[in-house]
Here is the input.
Amino acid sequence: MGHRKVTQIRIVVLGAAAGGGYPQWNCNCAVCSLFWQGDRRVTQRTQSSIAVTGDDENWVLINCSPDVRSQIMSVGALHPRGALRQSPITGIVLTNGDIDHVAGLLSLRESQPFSLFATRTIMSALADNPMFSAVDKTIVPRHVTELGGVVNLPGGLSAELFAVPGKVPLYLEQGDVVIGAETETTIGLKLSANGASFFYVPGCAALPENLANRLRGAQLVMFDGTLWDDEEMIKAGVGHKTGRRMGHMSMSGPDGSIAALSKLDIERRIFIHINNTNPVLVEGSEQKLAAEQAGWQIAYDGMEIEL
Ligand code: MLT
Ligand code: MN
Ligand code: ZN
Here is the structure.
């Protein structure tokens, strides 16, 4: 008799890129240029979000990118079915208040019920912006979730929310910005269903001991893949900030995520939220090969993962 593994959790990467997407609309950096030139080694990627289901009926989005409409178009499981107005998307969880993770909510303002989950701090960034009242609270209830708590999501999924080193969204920065505090501002998720679980940490400024211990032995970790080199944007001439200043630990180097997660016995490691300057986006690049040799996969739009 054949041995058939039953799927416990199904994940679809809706978007694998960081803010701006790949290529970024106004960018001619070395990596974006390849796309504009039609180079076959690169593929476009939309801004980061995943869809997760524990029952193949109800899908929960983790973050809601400005590209959500095209993301729904390209994934059949997320198309409306049955009733005149319907969506398999019945929940959305936010991991921070950054524009690339929340702006898509404005595209879902069509009186369609779903539940929104976030920490109090992230929820207040929405509440402070009157434009988000277009996503009517009486139709889309906003569930404030405490850190450390476990929330029950649609379709038998549950999420544990925990703080990771981060910073306030760029649009809320003022004065001296604290980088790397573990607060409600930037969180990671442990998503579980049917006995399987994985971690989703698309933004993370560092890997302190407590976070390393949490991730140890995981089945799957999807992790912040913003930059390869902390000074990549400066070297590319497109910005003056390091990755660390943006609240992202970089992939390479002794303090990088590849090194930091290498000794944690994680079965499967996937980079997501990849910035348009990151050379891992180029098929066959030295950096992509190095990441793969270290046991990582580079997420792409439409990537399907079964646990
Ligand atoms: C980030 O991840 O650093 C932010 O999304 C940057 C931005 O707001 O564009
Ligand atoms: Mn981002
Ligand atoms: Zn670029």
Q: What stands out?
A: Residues 34 and 40 are 8 Å apart (CA to CA). The pocket of D-malate (ligand 1) is lined by residues 18-19, 98-100, 170, 203, 246-247 (CB under 6 Å). The two ends are 22 Å apart (CA to CA). DSSP finds eight helices and 14 strands in the chain.
